[in-house]
């Protein structure tokens, strides 16, 4: 079975897919956390793997950067491979003083400057929200792991560079927890298909203080986030 962007046999993916942006992070997660992981697709080097975690089948696949890329993989996984839950695992930038590098953020809602949801929705606004069963499972898993979890609005931007003037101040006023590039598109693509989605993010940089994760912090933060994500879905 092939789709325009995935080449894998029918049934190659588990019902639950972890979706980091970076395909090499998908490879790392598969090798480090899954048992018996097998690579199931590599079109455009966007690697996907399926294995088990605590006896349950789980897949992990790169989704690329930005809403268009993430939406393509999410749509094809759900439409053609029977995927029912997509959990984005990634990083975000912080704008609030109280949010620190390494904090874990669950995007309960995802605001955006992207036009994709209005395009889908006839020019009206659709509230892009995480699926409650998945969000609740992530909250439960974070609590069980003793990891504080910030839950609220994230902002999915199309522009990594050249943010709109005043954007950061507006995000601060609106108590937005993190800025990233995919959740608003992911949530709507999944909702349109009756699938679940959520985004679990580690704060990698602070847009006000200029603080950034070191590569060691990045690795530790990533591992802890993946443990919470996998516990939530198994
Ligand atoms: N902007 C967009 N996406 C991001 C950022 C950011 O500052 N940090 C991590 N992902």
Summary, kept brief:
The protein has helices at 23-33, 67-81, 116-120, 132-144, 167-173, 183-192, 215-233, and strands spanning 16-19, 35-41, 48-53, 56-61, 85-94, 104-112, 149-156, 178-180, 196-206.
Question: What can you see in these coordinates?
Answer:
With about 230 residues, the chain is α/β, with parallel strands linked by helices. It has one domain (about 15-234): Rossmann fold (3-Layer(aba) Sandwich), CATH 3.40.50. Helices cover about 35% and strands about 25% of the residues. It has helices at about 25-35, 65-80, 115-120, 130-145, 165-175, 185-190, 215-234, and strands at about 15-20, 35-40, 50-55, 55-60, 85-95, 105-110, 150-155, 180, 195-205. It has a nine-stranded mixed beta sheet with strand order 2-3-4-1-5-9-6-7-8, with helices on both faces. The longest helix is centred in the last third of the chain and has 19 residues, at about 215-234. The two termini are about 25 Å apart. The mean pLDDT is about 95. Hypoxanthine (HPA) binds near residues 92, 157, 160 and 205.
Set down the secondary structure blueprint:
Elements (H helix, E strand, L loop, with lengths): L15 E4 L3 H11 L1 E7 L6 E6 L2 E6 L5 H15 L3 E10 L9 E9 L3 H5 L11 H13 L4 E8 L10 H7 L4 E3 L2 H10 L3 E11 L8 H19 L1
Parallel strand pairs: 1-4, 1-5, 5-9, 6-7, 7-8
Antiparallel strand pairs: 2-3, 3-4, 6-9
Helix pairs in contact: 2-6, 4-7
The site of hypoxanthine has 11 residues, from strand 5, strand 8 and strand 9.
């Amino acid at each position: 079975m092939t789709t325009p962007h995935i080449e894998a046999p029918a049934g190659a993916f588990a019902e639950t897919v972890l979706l980091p942006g970076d395909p090499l992070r998908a490879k790392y997660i598969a090798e480090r956390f899954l048992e018996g992981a097998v690579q199931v697709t590599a079109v455009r080097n966007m690697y996907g793997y399926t294995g088990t975690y605590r006896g349950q089948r789980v897949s992990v696949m790169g989704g690329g950067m930005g809403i268009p890329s993430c939406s393509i993989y999410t749509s094809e996984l759900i439409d053609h491979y029977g995927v029912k839950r997509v959990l984005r695992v990634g990083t975000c930038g912080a704008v609030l003083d109280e949010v620190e590098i390494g904090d874990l953020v669950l995007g309960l809602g995802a605001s955006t400057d992207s036009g994709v949801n209005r395009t889908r929705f006839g020019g009206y606004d659709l509230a892009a929200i995480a699926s409650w069963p998945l969000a609740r499972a992530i909250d439960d898993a974070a609590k069980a792991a003793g990891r504080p979890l910030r839950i609220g609005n994230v902002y999915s931007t199309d522009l990594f560079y050249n943010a709109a003037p005043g954007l950061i101040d507006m995000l601060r006023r609106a108590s937005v927890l993190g800025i990233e590039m995919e959740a608003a598109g992911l949530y709507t693509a999944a909702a349109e298909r009756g699938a679940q989605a959520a985004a679990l993010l580690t704060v990698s940089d602070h847009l006000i203080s200029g603080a950034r994760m070191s590569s060691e912090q990045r690795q530790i933060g990533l591992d802890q986030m993946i443990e919470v994500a996998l516990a939530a879905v198994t």
